[in-house]
Specification:
about 160 residues, single chain, 6 helices, about 30% strand, five-stranded antiparallel β-sheet, OB fold (Dihydrolipoamide Acetyltransferase, E2P), two-stranded antiparallel ribbon, about 20% helix, alpha+beta, globular
């Protein structure tokens, strides 16, 4: 509501008087967010439009998302966080290993054999002494992590669009 009040203050008083209450609730020049939507999103948590950095479509197309199956997992003892060194089967792209900081959220047994979504064309990076050749995708909410998985079996190496 604070954004709406600020917007109304900035408007010409004549224009503000002409706008109905509903128009004021659905208009936001600062961030194009419609405060009276009932989609359950807490817009204060999302940040303002000005805080976001957008990718153009050509840049997004460069990201190679693939399905990978977790073959094996070892604890990565060389890191401060509880990280895993994960071996993956990425189909035609072969086997590769990644390092992921998900050890506090998943046991090794929960993950081995699971299909996940990875960024396959991320530049290799040394993480606490191990070369990581990709990144798994996970959602985060508060202190919960959820690794992204396909909703049904699909061939390893399949592209994610």
């Amino acid at each position: 509501m604070e954004n709406i009040d600020n917007l109304i203050e900035q408007m010409d008083s004549e224009e503000a008087e002409r706008m109905s209450k509903d128009e004021r609730l659905t208009h936001s020049a600062e961030n194009d967010i419609i405060p009276n939507q009932s989609d359950g999103i807490k817009y204060d948590d999302v940040g303002s439009e000005a805080d976001r950095e957008y990718l153009d479509f050509d840049t997004f197309e460069k990201v190679d998302l693939r399905i990978a199956r977790i073959i094996s997992i070892e604890d990565h003892k060389g890191s401060r966080k509880h990280m895993y060194h994960i071996k993956l089967d990425v189909g035609e792209l072969g086997h590769r290993s990644i390092v992921a900081g998900i050890g506090d959220y998943y046991t090794k047994e929960e993950l081995v054999g699971k299909e996940i979504v990875i960024v396959a064309n991320l530049k290799p990076r040394n993480i606490a002494g191990i070369e990581s050749n990709g990144m798994l995708l996970a959602a985060e909410s508060g202190n919960q992590i959820a690794v992204l998985t396909p909703d049904k079996e699909i061939k390893e190496g399949s592209r994610v669009h």
